[in-house]
């Protein structure tokens, strides 16, 4: 008989992400975590530029492994986390720069992570991470009890051009901005595009990302994107 010896395959493609609150209070410490789903190369982690944040502790490293066997196929899952404890002295906006790490000699980087520092606690702010669908323990119903302001949830449309000719395509991108946890947004009512022929673009893989809008830090995602073709010319 013959014995085949093989190693466990990795569960997914390599991902390296940063996780921290969107809004923190000046003078209070908080954690930022850098999570990797693989085993990194030795001494390959490069810490980010923390800007004006004070580093109180870190890096603290934790690592966990699990193996699944499904239909004879063995899959190895890895959770490698690097944690820092930070503090901001003053109110304002600070962006944590990209961190980087190597896996099998290939370098991976996190996205920049903007954080808003408030001079008072913000109970309605979401504590979700970049690219995450939301990690706050509060439901939207709980937060709705006098906690949500008109600036906590926004829908904006961005167009690629300000003027076009008849038949010339125009890209319209609808982005949802949040500072609170939301559950489902499938029932958004978009405007009708009278006078345009429309072609929808698939945005099912759109991820949540952080960005600053009007001096506030939001998580944003694309909820609709389409090409608009004007069917008639309009004189200005």
UniProtKB/TrEMBL annotation:
Pfam families: BatD
Positions of region (Disordered): 114-143
Chain intervals with Low complexity compositional bias: 122-136
Name of this chain's protein: BatD protein
Species of origin: human gut metagenome
């Amino acid at each position: 008989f013959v014995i085949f010896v093989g190693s466990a395959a990795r569960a997914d493609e390599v991902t390296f992400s940063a996780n921290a609150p969107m809004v923190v209070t000046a003078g209070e410490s908080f954690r930022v975590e850098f999570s990797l789903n693989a085993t990194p190369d030795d001494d390959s982690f490069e810490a980010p530029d923390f800007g004006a944040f004070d580093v109180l502790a870190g890096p603290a490293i934790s690592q966990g492994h699990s193996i699944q066997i499904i239909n004879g196929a063995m899959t190895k899952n890895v959770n490698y986390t690097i944690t820092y404890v930070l503090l901001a002295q003053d109110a304002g906006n600070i962006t944590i720069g990209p961190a980087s790490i190597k896996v099998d000699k290939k370098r991976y980087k996190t996205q920049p992570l903007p954080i808003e520092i408030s001079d008072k606690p913000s109970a309605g702010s979401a504590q979700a991470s970049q690219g995450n669908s939301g990690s706050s323990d509060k439901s939207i119903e709980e937060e709705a009890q006098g906690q949500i302001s008109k600036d906590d949830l926004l829908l904006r449309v961005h167009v690629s051009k300000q003027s076009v000719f008849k038949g010339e395509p125009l890209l319209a991108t609808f982005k949802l901005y949040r500072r609170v946890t939301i559950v489902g947004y499938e029932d958004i009512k978009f405007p009708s595009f009278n006078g345009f022929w429309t072609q929808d673009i698939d945005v099912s893989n759109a991820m949540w990302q952080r960005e600053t809008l009007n001096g506030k830090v939001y998580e944003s995602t694309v909820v609709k994107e389409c090409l608009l073709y004007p069917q008639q010319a309009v004189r200005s």
